Amino acid sequence: MIDLSIRGGRVLTMASPDVLEGASLGIDGGRIVSVGPELEARRVIDATGRAVMPGLVNTHSHAAMTLFRGLADDRELMDWLHHYIFPAEASEVDAEFVRWGSRLACLEMVSNGITTVADMYYFESTVAEEFAACGMRGVLGQAMVDFPVPDARNWEEALAGMRRFASDWKGHPLVTPAVAPHAPYTVSEAHLRECRALADELDLPLMIHLAETRSEHEQILASQGVSPTEYLHRIGLFGPRTLAAHVVWPSDDDIALLAGSSVGIAHCPHSNMKLASGVAPVLKMLRAGLNVGLGTDGAASNNDLDPWQELQTAIFLQKVTSLDPTALPAYQALEMATRLGARACSLTDVGTLEVGMRADVIVVSLDGLHQQPVYDVASTLAYTTRATDVRTVVIDGRVVMDERVVQTVDPAGLLDRVGEYAARIRRRVLAK
Prior knowledge:
Layout: E1 2-12, E2 19-28, E3 31-36, E4 41-46, E5 51-54, E6 56-61, H1 77-92, H2 95-111, E7 114-121, H3 124-134, E8 137-144, H4 155-169, E9 175-181, H5 189-202, E10 206-210, H6 214-224, H7 228-234, E11 242-246, H8 252-260, E12 264-267, H9 269-274, H10 282-287, E13 292-294, H11 307-322, H12 330-337, H13 339-344, E14 361-364, H14 377-383, E15 390-395, E16 398-402, E17 405-406, H15 414-430
Parallel strand pairs: 1-4, 1-5, 6-7, 7-8, 8-9, 10-11, 11-12, 12-13
Antiparallel strand pairs: 1-2, 2-3, 5-14, 14-15, 15-16, 16-17
C-alpha cells in the first residue's frame, strides 16, 4: 500500500503536452511511483475534474522582503535600492525580521501553488528554517555584497557566514544552499571570483542578478569595457549550476555566452515592468536552448508572490513585443513555470510528474466561472487560472495545503506580528 493516491484528475505531467484524463498519481516515500494506474493507498485525494500538475517553481525571490511590500513604490531601481531599500535593511533587518517575513512569504507562496523557490537574502539560515518548517523546497542563496549588511560587517564575515550556512544545510531533503553574490555592480571582481571558487569548493549552485537595467549595462560597459554578461563570463563566474536573475538587457552575443555556459535564467516580468527595466528577450533565450523559468522577485518590487500573474504576463509581453500572436504559447509558458524553472535552478528531480521524480504536485480547480468552458487544459491554466484556483499542494509527498487550508504554517499571530513590523517601519523609516 502506497502513501498517497491522487485520483481521477486531468493530469498534465509536463513531460509532454498530453493530458491524461481520469488518471491517478501514486506517491510513496516522497516520490512518484505510478502515473495512470490506480493503486491502493493510505490516503486518497479525489481530483475528479481538476487539473493535476507539477508544483510551480519560483526561480527568483527575496522571501523576507514581504515586510517591505509597498514601502517605496514608483521609483527607479537604483533610487529604490540606494535611497530606500538598502537604508531600510540596514536599520530594520535582523534574524527575527527575516523569520517573520519568510513565514508570511511561505504562507502566500504555498497558497498560490508554488512548491519550489530560489531565494536570495540575508540570514538565509533563518529562511531555511522557515522553509523547512513550512515544507517548501528551496534553493536558498546567502546574499553577499561588498558593503556592510545586516548579517555581515565585511567580506570576511560574509564568507564565514556562507560556509556556516552550507555546513548546516547541505544535504537537507528540501533545502539546497547556494552562494549568492548580489550583482556585478555591488560585488568587486576579486570577490566575484572568490564566490565562484567557493561554489566550486563546496559544490553549490551560484545565483546573481544580471543585466537587469539599461543603467547597469551602461555602468559595467563604462567600467569594464564589455557588457555585464561578457564581464561575468570573462572572469569565469558562469560555472556549473549558475542562475541569473532578470537578464533584461542581453545582446545576441550575450545570449550565446549564457547558452554556452548553460546558465539558468529567472524571468521576472512583473518586477521588470514595475521598475520600468524593460522586456527580457525570452523568445531569443528559449530558442538558444536556455532554461528560462519564471520568478516573482521580492514583494517589495512586485508586489505579490503570484506565479499565475507572472505566467500570463510573460506570455502577453512576448506576443506584443514580437507582434506575433503565436509567440510563447500556453504550454511553453507552463514549461517555464514548472520543468524549465526547475532546470534553471539545477534541480533535476522536480518539475514533471514522472515515475521516480520527487512528488511536488498541485491540484487546480477547473470549475470557476472565469474558466468556463474548458476546451484545452493548458490554455485554461495559462490564460484564466488564478492563484485561488489552487486547491491542494503536495511537496515531497507531504500534503502541505488541503482544500485551501495550509497545514504547516500556523497563521495565528502572524498578521499581528507583521502589523508590528509595519508600524515600526512607518515610524523609523518612512517618517524620516
